[in-house]
Description:
Blueprint: E1 2-7, E2 9-10, E3 15-16, H1 24-43, E4 49-58, E5 61-70, E6 73-75, H2 81-104, E7 112-118, E8 123-128, H3 157-170
Antiparallel strand pairs: 1-8, 2-3, 4-5, 4-7, 5-6, 7-8
Amino acid sequence: MSRKRIVQYDFSTHFLTGIGIMSKKDEVVREMAGVLLEFMALTKLDWDATYFRFASPGGGTTSSEWLYRKNRELDYFQGIAQLEMTYQTTLEKLAEKLSDEMVSEGRERPVVIVATVDSEKNYDLKFDYKNPSALEIRPLSLGAANSYFGDEIVIDKNIEEFQDHLKGLAS
């Protein structure tokens, strides 16, 4: 079962909407949103939203992926690998710190965190506490039950054909 928490942040006032004094967890969330926005500003891309997915199923294993959306199309960052790697490493550390802070507050440790920031500087977090395959953001997961996007994103014809090809290989 997935839980969703939406927090909106107004970067012009540096104040979390609806919260007077920020907890350490909220400070980490704010920092994640700031890192995502800073990176997107450096890319000079035309974008509507960026998505960072962090999975930590246990046993010291972690993974992350990151992409952006313009209109209803998803894309990976291209030609900026070094910059992307630096920011992705920072986001991974922040996601681990966020998980630790949640546990310190007596909450369950999430196995998946998806942080989203849009070009209007609003952010959203979604968590899954059980399934490390939940909330997938990669284009090949579009249309699948575990996709973060549901019907929000158009499935590119090439991706749809490749998904069909993979299904044929599996049968």
